[in-house]
Write a structure and sequence with these properties.
Rossmann fold, seven-stranded mixed β-sheet, five-stranded mixed β-sheet, 14 helices, 12 strands, binds nicotinamide-adenine-dinucleotide
Length: 459
């Protein structure tokens, strides 16, 4: 099972139309191409944001130079081009990615995203953030990410199923329950995970089929998913906000908040925070923005968004454009959509006390500086949205042990883990007199540095 890809920094595999099924050890990574010179691409790339954040922390803590070299690069990169037959009988080609950043702490772990903007640079950055996130949360996983470059809204359900299955087949043994475990991300969900599980299980030898249920997390409950996984990321965001409010001596009762992105993370965070007495006053998604100073009912908005494909033209609120949304005065802003939303240009628009990063990479390094100078608190993504991967870890454990935990147990364990991580980051920021993102990185990098020193470098 452990074949060439593990020993190589970068491999790109192209699956050609008509290619026969891979099997056995050949299923993992076929044709190799030379490694990229550096994972950082020209221009202002997302991976450069990660690198800037990483360098800031590595300098501050004087990270071992050898460990620094290793962590500055992704470990494996896979690109697959694959054909799928559409409903009209014609074939369409798709490009899918899986980047495995680091597995020093355990199997690679990270979501799959279906979006037109999915590209190698983005997936590299998201994979690295997963490494730091798992290390901050103290769970035994490394970091990976993947996806398909496409707009899923253009395809019917049967087409989406065939695209997903063919992608899972193309990934082959480059994913696996003890090797690399995907989960839902933007525009993917429990159904997509069930198709991946079924495809994976159907293409391994018969005696292995029942042992592979933990090849993905975020599955439907009946297919081996965990209760509480669907809301886990939003729940984790809310637990960290509660800790922040307690630290500040503030009550969430009557506080106002705004949310960007009303999918899994945004809508769960909004519903759970509202149940604690906070008031949702503005929401923006890809279709547009809505605002109501008296408060928006998050359940009602979700029902509307499900029927209409988004929050645009929600009747119980006024329409707002992007700038008006970002300028809305509120106590808390939860970005829960895409990366690079808070930039040097947009950060001055914000009129909030706290940014709680539900999304991955919503704030770029220029914006970090603006927020710091303006005294706006920030709970960084690698801490704030770690509830998803923490409960994915719980799902993986339950599958391995053939156990089913109830929601009380899942929530209590999530609460303990994420608040412990929160307090460590808070205390590290004070100890080093630095910002919370850098403090979280220092915690992650210290853990990774220790493991590399203990294990050494093969051979
Ligand atoms: P989702 O597909 O369920 O929802 C995404 C939302 O973002 C949608 O409402 C969409 O309309 C909105 N959106 C997309 N582009 C936008 C734009 N340009 N402006 C405003 N809104 C836009 O995705 P999700 O799973 O909720 O993920 C959201 C973010 O949270 C991503 O950054 C993801 O990586 C991160 N995240 C997700 C999880 C998880 O468990 N799903 C875990 C950790 C982090």
């Amino acid at each position: 099972m452990t074949t060439a890809i593990h020993d190589t920094q970068t491999r790109i595999r192209e699956e050609r139309s008509g290619e026969s099924r891979n099997n056995g050890s050949q299923r993992r990574a076929a044709a190799a191409v030379p490694p990229s010179e550096s994972p950082v691409v020209e221009g202002k790339s997302l991976y450069q944001n990660v690198t800037t954040q990483f360098n800031r922390a590595a300098d501050l803590m004087r990270l071992d130079p050898d460990v620094r070299k290793i962590l500055a690069q992704t470990k494996n990169e896979l690109v697959v081009n694959f054909p799928v037959k559409m409903n009209n009988g014609h074939v369409e080609m798709f490009t899918g990615y899986r980047v495995q950043h680091n597995d020093a702490l355990g199997p690679f772990k990270g979501g799959l995203r279906f979006h037109p903007d999915v590209r190698l640079d983005e997936v590299r950055a998201l994979a690295a953030w997963m490494t730091w996130k798992c290390a901050v949360a103290g769970i035994p996983f490394g970091g990976a990410k993947g996806g398909i470059q496409m707009d899923p809204s253009r395809y019917s359900a049967p087409e989406l199923e065939r695209i997903t299955r063919r992608f899972a087949y193309a990934l082959g043994d480059n994913i696996g329950p003890e090797y690399d475990i995907p989960a839902p991300d933007v525009n993917t969900n429990a159904q997509i995970m069930a198709w991946i599980l079924d495809t994976y299980a159907s293409t391994v030898p018969p005696h292995e089929r029942q042992r592979n249920i933990h090849v993905v997390t975020g599955k439907p409950i009946e297919a081996g998913g965990s209760v509480g996984r669907d809301k886990a990321t939003g729940q984790g965001v809310v637990y960290t906000i509660q800790e922040w409010a307690t630290d500040k001596g503030l009550s969430l009762e009557g506080m106002t908040f705004i949310v960007q992105g009303y999918g899994n993370v945004g809508s769960w965070a909004a519903r759970l925070l509202t149940r604690l007495g906070a008031r949702l006053i503005a929401v923006e998604d890809v279709t547009g923005g809505v605002r109501h100073p008296e408060g928006i009912d998050p359940e009602d908005l979700l029902r509307y968004a499900r029927v209409h494909g988004g929050v645009f033209r929600y009747p119980r609120g006024e329409f707002v454009d992007h700038i008006m949304f970002m300028q809305t005065p509120a106590d808390i802003f939860i970005p829960a959509a895409m990366e690079n939303q808070i930039t040097g240009q947009t950060a001055p628009w914000l009129n909030v006390r706290l940014v709680a990063e539900g999304a991955n990479g919503p704030t770029d390094p220029d914006a970090d500086e603006v927020l710091r100078n303006r005294g706006i608190d920030l709970i960084p993504d690698i801490l704030c949205n770690s509830g998803g991967v923490i409960v994915s870890y719980f799902e993986w454990l339950q599958n391995k042990r053939s156990e089913f935990w109830d929601i009380e147990e899942v929530d209590a364990k999530l609460h303990k883990r994420i608040t412990t991580a929160y307090r460590k980051v808070r205390d590290k920021a004070v100890e080093l007199d630095t910002d919370w993102r850098t403090a979280a990185y220092v915690i992650a990098l210290t853990r990774l540095e220790t493991v590399y020193k203990e294990r050494g470098i093969f051979p």
